[in-house]
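for the recovery benchmark. tokens below, seq after
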């Protein structure tokens, strides 16, 4: 086997090993999110940004008090059609201030979070 061929094989081996390691790290990151405590957030949309949503939300039991806060969203396309005043529900995870699985709620008095006036 020539030296050039040996170097090519070693390069391919290192490349394959690197790709496997990156894939394993990505899967570990996804599994870590699934293991983190998940909570349901319910609130009223105050502002819709290109990649964020400001929500006046109820207390999220076991996670945070009621407040108005800007959140990143996991899928910016989920913001399409949302407007100020809409009631939404979403999933949040411990230590991650991103909204996941955003859903529009019925816009009636029963779905509104209590006023914090």
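predicted aa per position
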């Amino acid at each position: 086997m020539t030296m050039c061929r040996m170097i090519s094989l070693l390069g391919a081996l290192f490349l394959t090993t690197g790709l496997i390691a990156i894939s394993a790290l990505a899967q570990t990151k996804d599994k870590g999110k699934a293991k983190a405590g998940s909570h349901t957030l319910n609130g009223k949309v105050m502002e819709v940004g290109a990649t964020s949503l400001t929500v006046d939300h109820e207390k999220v039991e076991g996670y945070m008090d009621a407040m108005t806060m800007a959140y990143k969203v996991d899928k910016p396309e989920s913001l399409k059609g949302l407007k100020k005043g809409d009631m939404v529900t979403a999933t949040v995870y411990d230590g991650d201030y991103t909204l996941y699985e955003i859903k529009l709620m019925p816009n009636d008095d029963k779905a509104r979070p209590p006023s914090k006036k």
